[in-house]
Design brief:
There is one protein chain. The chain is mainly α. The protein has one domain. It contains four helices and no strands. Helix 1 crosses helix 3. The chain starts with a helix and ends in a 7-residue tail after the last helix. About 11% of the residues have low confidence.
């Protein structure tokens, strides 16, 4: 019985999500081409999608609620922080995109 409880606790803690965090600005940003900036936007969209998924109902969050509810709160907060960083990076890259005179693809 005790071994099962320990195993469940280990599983719950390992089930925590970890949304990728991005740097708002990178030294190499100013060397990016318009196409590379567009690729960065695409990457940010994927990270934002992952963050949204991590805030919702998923296996990790359900396990966290069942076994260790603070982990579920942590997952949500981690995802929210990641979303804020993505938005700041997107804004930074959009400024660069406009300064370089890039034209959005149609």
């Amino acid at each position: 019985m005790k071994a099962a409880a320990i195993a469940a606790g280990v599983y719950a803690l390992s089930a925590c999500t970890s949304t990728e965090k991005v740097a708002v600005e990178k030294p190499s940003d100013f060397n990016l081409s318009c196409t590379e900036i567009e690729g960065e936007f695409s990457d940010l969209d994927k990270i934002m999608e992952d963050a949204s998924d991590d805030k919702g109902v998923n296996t990790a969050n359900v396990a966290a609620v069942v076994f260790f509810w603070p982990a579920a709160v942590g997952n949500y907060m981690n995802a929210a922080d990641a979303e804020k960083l993505v938005e700041k990076r997107r804004s930074h890259l959009m400024d660069l995109y406009e300064k370089k005179g890039c034209v959005a693809p149609e």
